[in-house]
Amino acid sequence: MLNLPPDVEEFLSLPNAAIIATIRPDGFPMTVATWYDWDGGRLLVNMDAKRARLRWMRANPKVSLTIFDEDWYRHVSVYGTVVEIRDDEDLAGMDRLAQRYTGKPFRNRRAHRVSAWIEPAGWHGWDPSGRLSSPGVEAS
Q1: How far apart are CA 84 and CA 35, in angstroms?
Q2: How much is the CA Rg of the chain, to the nearest whole Å?
Q3: Taking a C-beta distance cutoff of 8 angstroms, is the pair 85, 131 a contact?
Q4: Long-range contacts made by residues 16-21, C-beta under 8 angstroms, separation at least 24?
Q5: What is the pLDDT of residue 137?
Q6: Which CATH fold topology does 6-126 show?
Q7: Which residues are CB-neighbours of 116 under 8 A, at least 6 positions away?
């Protein structure tokens, strides 16, 4: 498991905006906005079962997420491997994310959703204060 500085863990524990990158079959990266949750050293994401990015994660489990707050210069990028993909039959994963971001359960109770768990392999961060900056990176 990747050990992150406490300030980075705290930042990841907040419901910040995030962009996930997956690798398309033609080798190009594709990025989309996503909700996420940080739990026990892994990242949870959830998507509709018909999403292309789910197919791409199954074919190539290497992904990255960039998480940023209202000042998008303050960011943490995490790269890693999707280590678990499972149907979210009772929408527990999607409800968890919806509650985190909206304060309400997910509305579409008939949706076919899938949860994916990402195990981070590394990270990079930066912010003007230096709290989220990677080791050896000076804030300016």
Answers
A1: 17
A2: 15
A3: no
A4: 16/67, 16/68, 16/69, 17/67, 17/68, 17/69, 17/72, 18/65, 18/66, 18/67, 18/68, 19/65, 19/66, 20/45, 20/53, 20/63, 20/64, 20/65, 21/63, 21/64, 21/65, 21/66
A5: 62
A6: Pnp Oxidase; Chain A (2.30.110)
A7: 44, 45, 46, 47, 54, 57, 82, 84, 85
- C-alpha span between 61 and 82 (Å, rounded): 5
Both tokens of 5, joined, read 């500085």
pLDDT in tens, the chain (140 residues): 889 999 999 999 999 999 999 999 999 999 999 999 998 899 999 999 999 999 999 999 999 999 999 988 899 999 999 999 999 999 999 999 999 999 999 999 999 999 999 999 999 999 888 889 888 666 55
Token pair belonging to 59: 């074919």
Listed by start position, the domains of the chain span: 6-126
Tokens describing residue 118: 């990402």
What token pair was written down for 111?
């949706």
CA dihedral 93, 94, 97, 102 (to 10 degrees): -150
